[in-house]
Amino acid sequence: MSNGATNHGAGGEPHQQASGDEQVLTTNHGVPVSDNQNSLKSGRRGPTLLEDFVLREKIFHFDHERIPERIVHARGSGAHGFFEATADISELSKAAVFKKGEKTEVFVRFSTVAGGAGSVDTPRDVRGFAVKFYTTEGNWDLVGNNIPVFFIQDAIKFPDLVHAVKMEADRAYPQAGSAHDTFWDWASLMPESTHMLMWAMSDRTLPRSFRMMEGFGVHTFKLVNADGHASFVKLHWKPRLGLQSTIWDEALKLQAADNDYQRRDLWEAIDTGAFPQWDLGIQVFDQAFAEAQPYDVLDATKLIPEEDVPVRIVGTLTLNRNPDNFFAETEQVAFLPTNIVPGIDFTNDPLLQGRLFSYLDTQNSRLGTTNFHQIPINAPRCPFGNFQRDGKMQTQVPKGRANYEPNSLAAHGEEGGPRESRDRGFRTVTAPSGSDEQGEKLRVRAELFADHYSQARLFYRSQTPAEQAHIASSFVFELSKVGLLDQVPPRMVANLRNVDEDLARRVADGLGIDLPEKAPAAREPVDLPSSGALSIHKNMKETLDGRAVGILFAEGSDASTLDSLVAAVEAEGGKAVLVSPKVNGAPLSDGSKRKADGQLAGTPSQLFDAVAVVVSEDGCAALLKEAAAVQFVMDAFGHLKAIGASAEAQPLLDKAGVQKDEGVTTPDGSFVSAAKRRFYDREPAIRMLA
Ligand code: HDD
């Protein structure tokens, strides 16, 4: 320890020094640091000296801590886990990752699309669902979304889409939302986006949790077996917890309650051992099937109804470890649709083909080096090596002279390096199952790509009435936010008339505009049989697994009611969260005290899937004077949740405008079963939907 005042902390107290066996703080070059509190000055009150390499290195490094955020999907949350292949599909694919019983390490990153890295978790937005499989034959990245179709058919439109949806160029708002002029100006001029818009305006873009949403590879890919035979495939992730979304008002309020709602949900689930799981399903088909469809399977704005090609489950994804470091892993992970492995191949989908260029390119500007594959989160877990050399941030130290190929260095006893392998190496399918057409060089789209509305109609007509009302209302909300461009809402409604006349009328009514002329369709839409798989409501699970129940209590609450409710919720796999005006809790009826998990003002009911109110008469009287308590109940009711309330809580329910229905129960077993669902039937009575 050196002498004098320079070794003292800001408060003037001597700073604790490392004892012999503690790790010593050093500079990046290994020089031990004696004082991490004070810069080197000329005299006690003099200027700081340029020679202070400890200060300069620390500030220099700090100044460069941020890297460019992703142009899209900037806000994301990641987790480690594994994929286990559970079915033998060797007749379809030779990929090692699909060998029955094989466990492959994965890293998954979920994201929103439009907002910046510091934006909120719950805007109305598509969610990214990107999975990196570290297979024994190299990394396979399945870079998908929670929606099976996309806004555009050709990658050349991607910059326009993204410019239009992100904050407007001059005013830099709105953040993380599509409800503004430029997005709808663009979308209303792009009929091919209509199918995706139907999904985007549905509650699919308001997932309750990453754990409760589906994932999709979107494009048609190929599976290739050991004989080189290729089949077409669509890839699906099916959440074990079932589908669950919030509703719009709830999502808006969630933004206020917790910016990190979904990130926290994922982290806490993994942290507490409730490992999220998805099954991987495949839809496999051949060229004959493809040719018989009224849509083109190479068109990413189209899906293949599960009723036509059932989803076959081939494995399970389990997320069981949180990142050790957000930046090193979640931020630096680089997903590349070009990362495929023997046994899987691309198709000529023009959106996919453009992506094959974009992602590799973006990593160079984002991570600053062509050696981004050496960052631990990106590096393959299998051995890898070639003759690519040098570049910024090279961390490998290849020995010897072999940096070219062919070479005959081995004949001389030197290391000759790796060689290509005809049998193990990746081979592009040369004879695709069917014709990936080639011919003249043309800037065109295939004929069936021109049908922009049939599947949008299929999607809308496959929804429950409650879901249809949400879609119509979302269009009204979003188009109502179009401020300056009067021509946009009618143009959008004119497109919607091709989807469904009733939808168009509801949106026009909601906007208060006349129904415009129907937009001419490039190809007349056709009616397709409806598909139950497209509805969230038909694919929800009545369960408390993964769900949280908020229990409001106050001074004098009945101890045994409270304790048995907590036990009953937990017995069903739910998370019981105690909420009280004071976080330190309150004395209960029997004199004992329970600590709250959350203080009422900061723990509103939108954070929960269902709520209970367990209060005494006096406790209730006190809560009547607390706006947060009234709001707690009012929002739970408005967000269509179960409410379990003791008789003493009735004045609070009355003040909150709660009307009795099957979701409003006593705080006991009946509440625990009601808490497993939402009460969408309640909505028309309490909200003006379009
Ligand atoms: Fe993309 C990131 C998903 C079309 C260009 N995309 C990105 C991520 C996901 C997707 C999940 C975030 C990955 C992560 O967590 O790091 N993108 C999709 C899907 C698409 C799609 C499902 C259509 C089916 N994307 C698409 C096109 C282009 C891009 C057509 C460009 C032509 N996407 C990018 C990008 C990003 C990206 C700019 C930003 C950061 C990154 O790649 O690594 O290159």
UniProtKB/TrEMBL annotation:
The keyword Ribonucleoprotein does not apply. Keywords: Heme, Hydrogen peroxide, Iron, Metal-binding, Oxidoreductase, Peroxidase. Residues 412-426 have a biased composition (Basic and acidic residues). GO terms for molecular function: catalase activity. Gene3D superfamilies: 1.20.1370.20, 3.40.50.880, Catalase core domain (2.40.180.10). It is an enzyme of class 1 (oxidoreductase). It comes from the Bacteria. Its EC number is 1.11.1.6. It catalyses: 2 H2O2 = O2 + 2 H2O. Its cofactor is heme. Pfam families: Catalase (PF00199), Catalase-rel (PF06628), Catalase_C (PF18011). Belongs to the catalase family. HPII subfamily. Decomposes hydrogen peroxide into water and oxygen; serves to protect cells from the toxic effects of hydrogen peroxide. This is Catalase. It comes from Sphingomonas olei.
